[in-house]
User: Which sequence fits this backbone?
């Protein structure tokens, strides 16, 4: 039993209807599809060049605008109408059964996500009957349905008008039967009884009609409804929803005609049965299509000089050699930030770039190197020496990665780049020698200041200063950055060098207040490119207002913040989460006699009207308010709002930023030198926070803390409580390694590890005080080692090592089965080590593979070849793993680095690995013992005297890459005390 909703009757051979499955899920799916399509194609931020098809063909599946319903609908092109002025298409709306003619500018590409559901409308026809033949008698001058010898036959190709009208009142379906009340009626027989049709044996043979069904019942013309119950002539097992290809049974079109349009991409195609042809959609370009107004795509570009963006790597302002390098590095698709910033950097403009991909040096190196190579600085300063460009990075790791890219760029023979990383030693800078042919120096702010103090004369032809990670540079080294910028300004402002290019480029992921001073003081005529909307709002100086309220009081709190009689014209956006919230807020605001608009997913037909009303000019005293949802907000492309009210809480920084960017035209413009006219910089954001927003509070507080907003004390207290609750959920995480190594975490808000002491996990059996003997075996960093604690009364490990060597001297049985968590043995040189398998890869058909293991008596983790893993007898399992973590206290990396430089780790490893040291334990947590100091002690031959050869902390400090960290142990003890742990007593000094 099928239910069919008849939408339109063209004739009994063409009935348009929908098969109703009986549940509401299908209807909801198509309603959702219509909403999503209208939101997508009404989206003002979409680039029409990508959405308009390059061509229109008969049978093509596309999306067209139905002006009657003010809605975008899926359609199939039936024919093309061309004239000298325009191109139009005659289309069938495949979800509505309507035909209409639409101009080409109202046709869009049907994207793949809107073609997942099959066509909703299907064409039916009556089976087993054909239209009667009209015979016209020439002699009697009359027409009837009876045969006559002297007559000419006009064969009916369509149904007559009378039958058409009868069919429209008698809603029918193909080879099916109409049930009205308890009466079953065959519509086919009714037409035959009325002599509008006759039975056709050839089509009736397969109709499946029984004798009862063959008895016609006359239909009344006023009892039919749009939805009727029918019985299919197909078996019950066959009555399933038809596949996509069966939802549109269009007649075979004539030979397709191909018509070119101006821009865009082709849509999907349908064959004669309505199926979507696989792979019929055009392949999209990997390069972004740059919009004429970048703000439409959430990109803020403020430039003192007009910038023409590039669209792809082919027209990017870089040399052919660099273009080849970029393609080799698979950097062929430019980001939106690249499209706008590369022309500015390549032309030598002062540029600030804030984007998510700011940590990729290629995003600024290509245009910068192009400008350096192509300008005339080489010929003008041939007599000078020293670098012409300095690239500052926030740490040694970034310095190394940038230098590696420069080496790969094949430009080293021209630029001769050099890395300089200086320690804190006072004399180290004096010994540095920069080659005379070096044009590009890569370093950190700390190292550059040390160089300037000893070799200031080497930086007299500095004209390009690049700040990689500018937000971090100013945060970690504010004093050093001030010194560097002062030198840069002094060098580039001299009259004799006025004709030479001067350029300052700052790249960052976040906007900071320091960068405002950088712009106003050191960057004349800048170009500012920001592709992170929430950061653009910080730059634009959006005033943030935070209101704490109960969920039940949000509307009254909202009404209290709105000014319904403003002195100057205001445009306010109120953003809610649901349709019901929009309706509730709209009702409340409308009662205040404000000019209020609303838009949500159930009113997409009003989107054009709302857009027109919003864009009208307003005068003083007028306050236009639009209440909408996040989804609908994108459709309007609003950039001139004066206030955004977050009635519903933004669930992510991206959502928050997209809302704030609706005020982009109100953002201050720091590329303008004249900032006296600040009356239009009145963007305001009102955030309503209720008890439902607990899980988002920490992230919002982190953002609001970077603004000048006044934070309510209850909000700060609430945020602290949420932070504590999150820490309580990290019981399955290890204690933060930075917390153990240096006493503080580098970023506790983003670190996934635990930062609280838990006695069950961190209680230690290792000594927390006293003098111990340790043997470092694996050097993880300059201050963190893994090794063994040597106890005179315990020789268990020595016995184990000896027995293992004896056992494997005779035979080396390979592991027959490798189980995760199992103990095995591995040979390294002449030693045999116990290992625990951490993970076994899926082998498949591979004969050789690697296994990740932990050396339980050494502490290191690494991959070993499968054939190196040996079976370990049970008698070697009883001794617990001997490796403990040893952390040397009171030292940390210099220059605000978060990790030790490899050369420091390498130097310490070469000095201490495998040697026994004497140390004083000052604390212990879990399997970690903290020592201060740790010295190498040797016995004088023939005497009882011992000598301290070196102190590990002193060796670290002597490299210049480390500094003292006096509060380290105190912080560790405070951590333990907060968790209820007891302190260990300190032992006396180590005597020599």
Assistant:
């Amino acid at each position: 039993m099928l239910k069919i909703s008849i939408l339109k009757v063209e004739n009994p051979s063409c009935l348009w209807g929908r098969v109703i499955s009986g549940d509401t899920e299908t209807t909801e799916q198509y309603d959702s599809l219509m909403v999503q399509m209208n939101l997508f194609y009404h989206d003002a931020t979409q680039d029409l060049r990508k959405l308009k098809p390059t061509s229109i063909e008969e049978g093509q599946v596309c999306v067209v605008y139905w002006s009657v319903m003010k809605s975008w609908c899926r359609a199939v092109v039936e024919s093309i109408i061309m004239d000298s002025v325009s191109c139009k298409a005659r289309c069938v709306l495949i979800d509505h059964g309507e035909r209409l003619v639409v101009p080409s500018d109202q046709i869009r590409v049907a994207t793949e996500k809107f073609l997942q559901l099959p066509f909703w409308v299907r064409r039916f026809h009556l089976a087993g009957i054909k239209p009667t033949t009209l015979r016209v008698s020439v002699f009697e001058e009359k027409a009837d349905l009876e045969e006559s010898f002297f007559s000419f036959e006009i064969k009916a190709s369509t149904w007559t008008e009378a039958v058409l009208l009868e069919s429209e009142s008698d809603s029918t379906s193909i080879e099916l039967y109409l049930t009205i009340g308890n009466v079953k009626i065959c519509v086919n027989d009714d037409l035959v009884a009325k002599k509008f049709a006759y039975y056709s044996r050839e089509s009736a043979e397969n109709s499946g009609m029984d004798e009862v069904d063959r008895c016609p019942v006359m239909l009344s013309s006023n009892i039919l409804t749009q939805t009727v119950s029918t019985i299919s002539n197909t078996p019950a097992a066959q009555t399933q929803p038809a596949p996509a290809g069966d939802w549109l049974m269009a007649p075979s079109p004539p030979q397709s005609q191909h018509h070119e349009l101006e821009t865009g991409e082709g849509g999907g195609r349908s064959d004669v049965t309505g199926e979507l042809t696989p792979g019929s959609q055009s392949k999209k370009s990997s390069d972004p299509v740059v919009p004429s107004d970048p703000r439409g795509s959430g990109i803020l570009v403020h430039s003192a000089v007009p910038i023409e963006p590039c669209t792809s790597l082919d027209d990017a302002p870089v040399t052919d050699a660099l273009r080849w390098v970029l393609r080799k590095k698979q950097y062929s698709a430019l980001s939106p930030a690249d499209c706008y910033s590369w022309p500015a950097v390549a032309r030598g403009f002062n540029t600030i770039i804030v984007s998510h991909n700011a940590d990729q040096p290629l995003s600024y190196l290509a245009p910068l190197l192009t400008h350096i190579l192509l300008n005339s600085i080489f010929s003008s300063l041939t007599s000078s020496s020293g670098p012409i460009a300095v690239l500052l990075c926030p740490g040694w790791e970034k310095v190394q990665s940038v230098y590696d890219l420069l080496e790969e760029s094949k430009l080293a023979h021209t630029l001769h780049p050099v890395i300089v990383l200086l320690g804190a030693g006072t004399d180290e800078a004096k010994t540095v020698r920069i080659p005379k042919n070096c044009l590009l120096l890569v370093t950190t702010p700390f190292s550059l200041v040390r160089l300037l103090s000893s070799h200031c004369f080497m930086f007299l032809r500095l004209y390009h200063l690049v700040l990689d990670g500018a937000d971090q540079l100013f945060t970690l080294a504010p004093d050093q950055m001030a010194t560097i910028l002062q030198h840069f300004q002094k060098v580039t402002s001299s009259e004799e060098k006025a004709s030479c290019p001067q350029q300052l480029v700052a790249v960052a992921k976040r906007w900071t207040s320091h960068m405002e001073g950088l712009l106003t003081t050191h960057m004349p005529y800048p170009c500012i490119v920001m592709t992170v909307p929430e950061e653009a709002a910080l730059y634009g100086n959006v005033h943030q207002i935070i209101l704490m309220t109960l969920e039940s009081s949000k509307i009254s709190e909202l009404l209290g913040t709105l000014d319904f009689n403003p002195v100057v014209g205001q445009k306010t956006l109120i953003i809610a989460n649901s349709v019901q919230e929009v309706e509730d807020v709209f009702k409340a605001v409308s009662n205040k006699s404000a000019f209020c608009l609303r838009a949500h997913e159930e009113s997409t037909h009003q989107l054009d009207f709302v857009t027109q009303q919003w864009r009208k000019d307003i005068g003083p005293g007028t306050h236009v308010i639009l209440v909408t949802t996040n989804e609908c907000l994108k459709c309007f492309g609003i950039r001139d709002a004066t206030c955004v009210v977050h009635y519903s809480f933004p669930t992510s920084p991206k959502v928050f930023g997209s809302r704030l960017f609706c005020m982009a035209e109100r953002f201050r413009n720091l590329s303008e030198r004249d900032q006296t006219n600040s009356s239009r910089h009145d963007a305001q954001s009102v955030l309503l926070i209720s008890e439902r927003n607990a899980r988002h509070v920490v992230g919002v507080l982190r953002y609001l803390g970077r603004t000048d907003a006044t934070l309510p004390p209850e909000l700060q207290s609430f945020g602290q409580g949420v932070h504590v609750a999150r820490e309580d959920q990290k019981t399955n995480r290890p204690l933060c390694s930075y917390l153990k190594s240096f006493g503080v975490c580098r970023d506790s808000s983003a670190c996934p590890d635990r930062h609280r002491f838990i006695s069950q996990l961190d209680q230690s059996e290792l000594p927390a005080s006293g003098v111990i003997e340790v043997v470092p075996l694996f050097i993880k960093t300059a201050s963190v080692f893994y090794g063994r604690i040597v106890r005179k009364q315990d020789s268990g490990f020595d016995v184990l090592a000896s027995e293992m060597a004896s056992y494997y001297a005779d035979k080396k049985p390979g592991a027959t089965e490798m189980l995760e968590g199992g103990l095995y043995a591995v040979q390294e040189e002449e030693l045999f080590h116990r290992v625990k398998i951490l993970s076994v890869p899926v082998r498949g058909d591979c004969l050789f593979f690697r296994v990740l293991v932990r050396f339980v008596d050494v502490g290191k983790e690494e991959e070993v070849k499968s054939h190196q893993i040996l079976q370990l007898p049970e008698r070697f399992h009883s001794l617990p793993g001997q490796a403990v973590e040893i952390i040397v206290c009171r030292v940390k990396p210099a220059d605000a680095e978060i990790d030790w430089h490899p050369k420091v780790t390498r130097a310490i490893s070469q000095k201490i690995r495998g040697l026994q040291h004497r140390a004083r334990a000052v604390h212990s947590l879990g399997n970690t013992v903290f020592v201060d100091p740790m010295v190498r002690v040797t016995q004088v031959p023939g005497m009882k005297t011992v000598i301290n050869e070196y102190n590990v902390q002193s060796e670290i400090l002597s490299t210049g890459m480390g500094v003292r960290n006096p509060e380290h142990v105190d912080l560790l003890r405070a951590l333990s005390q907060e968790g209820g742990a007891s302190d260990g007593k300190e032992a006396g000094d180590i005597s020599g």
